[in-house]
């Protein structure tokens, strides 16, 4: 039995492993009883491979007396420890509260916006803050901070260590709208910010989350999707999360912080990158090199075209014959190659742009700095022209 081996001492014959390790892994059947679900998938992916940030949203109702509990949650509860972002509203912080007092191990100091008593006319309550996990992202830029009588808003842009190719960066906005605010004015402020950031980076997703109370964005931003489906306060959904990607998150309720009457919400990303959703296509293209073009021109130049005229009885038959002959010559002479098209390929990456990238690479290896800079300029110009053309087609 050449294809089988004996297992030690039992007398049973087991099949010999064949094929490469990759083929054996692909053919391996998933073990029965393996845990599934969004939580287990997040743990398997880890912070460095998440397509979108995992977010914990909560209404703290004074962060001063909840820092110790938040620190304990980060230490002992995996949802807090492995969260990419912790967004809190109603922090009730003032200017005299030092930021370092709210440092949390594993997250660091928060990005905060405190209520301005002179602008809002209220000395108590309000305020928002944002904790960002440095294991997921260290590049954080504050884009906007607004404190008005109707809304308190803090917006940041995030460039983590890993994002899918179709997502250049992530915009995250934390808002607090108090119950007696002018909801139309607050929604208009959010809409202006969304349009402003969209003009800066159209491909970047934008997520607006916080305590909205009675405010709704359906009228001003109808294209956004709301992800929180579990009640957050007395059976009502007051803490919301809007985003530009449909079905990006799934919400799970968490225990409130301290004696807060708002439950916390875990927003787990269920978004699938374009590379996993789409199909990989293989396409055969012709290589129109100079030598192949010269050879094709010589073949057509030496062809006796009178043979086609004499053998055809009408113009339609002559046209079909000549076209078929030229196609035959092209297929016989012009070399071809197979290229792979991935669903996350950028539509503006043209052949000229690829050539400029290759020229820059060659110049770098040769040590030609001037040629490298020139290729970089040409590549950036071609990239911008291609993006503008694609955006013009989409808007038209």
UniProtKB/TrEMBL annotation:
Ranges of compositional bias, category Basic residues: 25-37
Which region is the signal sequence? none
The Endonuclease/exonuclease/phosphatase domain extends over 71-215
Q: Which GO terms describe its molecular function?
A: catalytic activity
Q: Where is this region: Disordered?
A: 1-37
Identify the domain of life: Eukaryota
Q: What is this protein called?
A: Endonuclease/exonuclease/phosphatase domain-containing protein
**What organism does the record attribute this protein to?**
Solea senegalensis
């Amino acid at each position: 039995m050449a294809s089988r081996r004996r297992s030690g001492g039992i007398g049973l014959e087991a099949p010999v492993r064949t094929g490469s390790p990759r083929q054996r892994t692909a053919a391996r059947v998933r073990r029965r009883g393996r845990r599934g679900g969004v939580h287990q998938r997040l743990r398997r992916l880890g912070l460095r491979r998440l397509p979108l940030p995992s977010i914990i949203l909560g209404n703290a109702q004074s962060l001063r007396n909840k820092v110790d509990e938040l620190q304990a949650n980060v230490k002992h509860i995996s949802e807090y420890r492995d969260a990419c972002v912790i967004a809190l509203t109603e922090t009730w912080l003032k200017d005299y509260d030092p930021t370092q007092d709210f440092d949390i191990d594993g997250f660091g100091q928060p990005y905060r916006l405190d209520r301005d008593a002179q602008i809002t006319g209220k000395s108590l309550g309000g305020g928002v803050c944002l904790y960002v996990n440095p294991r997921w992202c260290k590049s954080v830029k504050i884009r906007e901070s607004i404190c008005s009588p109707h809304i308190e808003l803090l917006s940041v842009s995030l460039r983590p260590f890993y994002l899918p190719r179709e997502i250049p960066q992530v915009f995250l906005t934390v808002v607090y709208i108090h119950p007696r605010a002018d909801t139309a004015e607050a929604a208009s402020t959010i809409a202006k910010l969304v349009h402003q950031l969209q003009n800066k980076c159209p491909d970047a997703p934008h997520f607006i989350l916080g305590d909205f109370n009675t405010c709704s964005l359906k009228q001003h931003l109808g294209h956004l999707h709301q992800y929180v489906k579990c009640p957050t306060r007395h059976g009502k959904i007051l803490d919301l999360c809007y985003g530009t990607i449909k079905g990006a998150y799934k919400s799970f309720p968490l225990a409130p912080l301290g004696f807060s009457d708002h439950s916390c919400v875990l927003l787990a990303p269920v978004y699938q990158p374009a590379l996993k959703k789409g199909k990989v296509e293989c396409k055969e293209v012709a290589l129109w090199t100079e030598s192949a073009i010269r050879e094709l021109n010589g073949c057509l130049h030496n062809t006796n075209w009178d043979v086609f005229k004499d053998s055809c009885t009408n113009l339609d038959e002559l046209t079909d014959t000549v076209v078929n002959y030229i196609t035959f010559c092209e297929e016989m002479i012009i070399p071809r190659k197979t290229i792979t098209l991935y669903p996350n390929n950028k539509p503006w990456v043209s052949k000229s742009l690829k050539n400029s990238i290759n020229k820059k690479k060659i110049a770098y290896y040769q040590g030609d700095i001037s040629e490298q800079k020139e290729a970089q300029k040409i590549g950036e110009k071609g990239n911008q022209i291609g993006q503008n053309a694609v955006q013009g087609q989409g808007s038209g």
